[in-house]
Fold each of these.
Amino acid sequence: MNDKTRILVTCPKEVPPLLAGEIEALGLPVLSRETAGVMTEGTLEDCMRLNLCLRTGHRVHRLVRNFDAADADALYQNIAAIPWEKHIREDGYISIASSVRNDTIRDNRYANLKCKDAICDRMREACGRRPDSGSELRGVVIFLHWHGNRCSVYFDTSGEPLSRRGYRRMAVRAPMQETLAAAVVMTTGWNGQGHFVNPMCGSGTLAIEAALIALGRAPGLLRREFAFMHLKDFKREKWEAVRAEIAKQGRGSPSGRIIATDINPQAVAAARQNAADAGVESLIEFDVCDFAETRVPEGGGVVVFNPEYGERTGETQALIPVYRRIGDFLKRSCRGYRGYVFTGNSKLFNKVSLKPSRQWTLFNSNIECRLLEYEVFGTRSGSGLETAST
Ligand SMILES: C[S@@+](CC[C@H](N)C(=O)[O-])C[C@H]1O[C@@H](n2cnc3c(N)ncnc32)[C@H](O)[C@@H]1O
């Protein structure tokens, strides 16, 4: 429990800089940034903190052992040499996940099977029986990272990805993954000061993540189940203490307002329910309306859109006027705000009738998306509107 080991936190591509910032803010070192993850180090207790606090991480992996393995037999031998009986209960349940790029392996499932056999044979030898195994993430999860001859075996201490916060029981079409929504809010720089306006809110993910960020509330507090709870050295009292300490942290209410609207009443009902489950319903003002009717308060802040982005050509054509109208709305109603549009359709990137001041690439699963920023200068009473039109 108190041994320090390497910890690999995975995340979507392009997110490692944000994730590295989160890890450092928790007082842990950033040893390296990978394409889709960050390497740090710490104890099992640190893994608990990471699972509770991270907003942009997907899974927290605690290193068990590194070794070289040229083929499946070498993999088996090396894995069978690990004292699994110290970590896993013989009457427990295990599942294996992997990322394998080794010339001798054509199917990951073969590597997973070898790994499972090695663990179970070792356990049977040491304890007289072996844990059950399968693909469900309901027990100890082992993650095998085997690229070339280099193999790293980890405990996946999260199990279900951390994007499953537990508050989104009601989803509408094309909901945004919670970790991606957090990455979008963090990229806008919004932290509770100024207003957060989210027309086209769908199931409310952006507004809910914004509220959690503004409160400084750890998103993992909403979850009851993590894979580390099934490890033999898991101490419930320690976990309760870590959880209680993190639950005490946080800031007061944001000074800015959070406003979420959608044209679809069912989406707003779902968003309201999700916000209630996340414990932030009182912080978000919901309304059913066309996005252009959203009441944007004086005072400035951010306006964040995640419009549909369509996949077929016909859909893209139909969405062009919607994106134009978003630009018109920003110009007309959002002076003093920074506007953001998150979209995954490259044909729509330049259809907002404004020139972006900055843009970032983010991935929604494997769809390359853009977060486009538009600065809308001036005040509503003043005459100085200075946005660049395309
Ligand atoms: C891609 S979804 C947003 C998903 C959201 N980020 C989430 O996590 O659930 C786009 C939303 O825009 C809404 N919408 C489409 N046209 C609209 C309009 N003219 N005015 C307001 N909302 C609109 C849809 O009802 C849908 O909920």
Amino acid sequence: MSIDVKDYASTVPIAWCPGCGNFAILNSAKKALSDLGFPSERVVICTGIGQAPKLPHYMRVNTFNGLHGREVAAAIGVKLAANDLTVVVHAGEGGAYGEGGNHMTHAIRRNVDMTVVVHDNLYYALTKGQASPTTPEGTITRIQPDGVPSKPLNPLALAISQSCSFVGQGTSARPDLLAELLKAAIRHRGFSLVHVLQTCPSWDKIHTPQFYLDHCYELEPDYDPRNREAALSLVMTPGERHPLGVLYLEDRPLYDDSVLHGIKEPMRRRGVNPGAVEKFLDRFK
Ligand SMILES: Cc1ncc(C[n+]2csc(CCOP(=O)(O)OP(=O)(O)O)c2C)c(N)n1
């Protein structure tokens, strides 16, 4: 049964720039949870620092706001302690692929059951538009006046190459499509990466909503996301047009299951048994 989107409304004034793509992503995030019928108390959104990480401030939902780039690490802890909750991360591409690239890579490899939504606006937006891991090579910024000297990271190829269990791409210019993608990602059991091509009216005059409408296309219904070679070749030759939808799917055992040894009860209901802790420590004597 779906839940009224208004149930996720927060009274915190929104501090994003007018026209920011984050507004559309926020609406898609609320719509996805409302369509899934997930009450706000069943969801935890973990974030770090940046414009994207402000998202859960503008929703009535449990949240953990930690350090820049450490949102995925915090989310793993939350998921293992509260394994009955739905854990979602919202991060900028700077936090997710730059400062937090290590955590992201290893969380993908481990396959923790969570959804990571990366708002890729191509810049470090909060700190005034420096180049981020995905800024196109040669782009001139106020900090890179001679142009960005490095090639941009290819996060989709990285995720697929590491057998990420769910890899999807959406855009803030197509919020309804993004809401559907988020629903599929959250429903998926395993590590889901949703890469969102996001507009940033303050630092980027090129990648406007119209740009993404013109340069993105929906994957054909007969596209097979379980074909690894096809998925890799799709994202290794990015070109001018960006595919939207579920790019890659792989069923893998969950890290959560292997470390929790079948325990279904969340930690807050299990309580602490000092005898069990001592017994556990005895194994290392
Ligand atoms: C470890 C660490 N490095 C750098 C910073 C400074 N810092 C805070 S937010 C930010 C940029 C955020 O960019 P991004 O993660 O892409 O999110 P956006 O603001 O673009 O949504 C930076 C560089 C920090 N707080 N901590």
Amino acid sequence: MKREKYSRYEFLKKMGFQGGALMAVLASCTKPGDAVLESLIVNKNGETVASLDSTKISTKTTTPGTSTGGTSSGGTSSGGTTATSLPVGNVSTADLALVKNPLVKLDLTSSGASPLATAGGYVIANSNSIVIGKTASGDYVAATTTCSHEPKRQVIFNRTEFYCTAHGARFSLTGAALNTIARSGISTYRTANDGKTLIVYA
Ligand code: FES
């Protein structure tokens, strides 16, 4: 009976190895100088790959990865930078104009805004929905008047915090609940002014 002679490739293929598994076995049992290997590495298009040089393989992988990195480096973080440039506190009239459609625009020279001339003073604006106060350091702070205990619009400014006159819920100037009556925090808003006009915005 004639005995067949197989190359490693044919032998492994008859053993059931295919595709990537076949290539992996061949690579593991072949020396770098083994010329037969290169001719056996065939990609899905039927083209022969030059060699198993891992550097070349990883280079191919890196190329699309680089473009992905470019996408993520992108604009998203630039967008964040834009958000930080919003005017807060005492700013120029030009910077104040950067905020379009503020929730409140208040003439600080008007009689309605006179409570804000004094630290601890406050006004209620925007159809009774926003309270604006002036702190001891001269900053303007603003929050919703709607309490988190019950949906009553009774939150006022009380010198160093916001306070609900209905049942005594207390909130920090950043809106955090300060006692158990306040079930949770309340919304606060950014403020900016140029000395004449005060705006409140989200
Ligand atoms: S509704 Fe504000 S404390 Fe109850």
